[in-house]
């Protein structure tokens, strides 16, 4: 099975996939942006599941991921991952961001997810430049998918024109390397 990577512009909370990925904070407490939209659309079940994870392990470190129910979302699961805050690019940000994507995909495989949708992690309030984040995200996903089968489609659901264009350019550059 060949995995497709697709770019779409839209609202990740409306995606008909097995799992969506949430750009969460390390305390797994409701925030703004993608996190706020997912929690509003998914309802209190997601908050309760995050409360249980926080009670059990104290949150989620940067670069790691945890999984909860999708609540009222069309997706069965929400995979919460904590992206790095941009500090200029010399503080391990790219490795931490790549880890977000790898850890999320690994959790997806563990839970038999066939279709998954990612937002642009760390490019909102965390300030990661879109062009740099897109290159890291797409490379990490492509490398992970080359290691084996299981996931049929990875969608990057991008909220606005500039983010979509940044990912489109990064995907073209990545495809040009192969």
Key descriptive features of the protein:
alpha/beta, 6-stranded mixed β-sheet, 42% helix
Short description:
The protein is 42% helix and 19% strand.
Describe it:
The chain has 178 residues and is α/β, with parallel strands linked by helices. 42% of the residues lie in helices and 19% in strands. The chain is globular. Strands 1-6-5-2-4-3 form a six-stranded mixed beta sheet, with helices on both faces. The protein has five helices and six strands, in the order E-E-H-H-E-E-H-E-H-E-H.
Instruction: Give a quick account of the main beta sheet: strands, pairing sense, barrel closure.
Output: 6 strands, mixed
Unreliable segments (pLDDT under 50, ≥5 consecutive)? none
Secondary-structure-based class equals alpha/beta
| Integer tally of domains | 1
Total helical segments: 5
Termini Cα gap: 19 Å
Shape: globular
CATH class descriptor name = Alpha Beta
Q: Share of helix among residues? A: 40-55%
Q: What would CATH call the homologous superfamily? A: Leucine Aminopeptidase, subunit E, domain 1
Name of the CATH architecture? 3-Layer(aba) Sandwich
Strand order of the largest sheet: 1-6-5-2-4-3
Mean pLDDT: 95
Q: Helix-strand pattern, N to C?
A: EEHHEEHEHEH
Radius of gyration: 15 Å
Strand content: 15-25%
- The counted number of beta strands is 6
List the topology elements.
Blueprint: E1 4-9, E2 19-24, H1 33-42, H2 44-57, E3 65-69, E4 77-82, H3 93-110, E5 115-118, H4 130-146, E6 153-158, H5 161-176
Helix pairs in contact: 3-4, 4-5
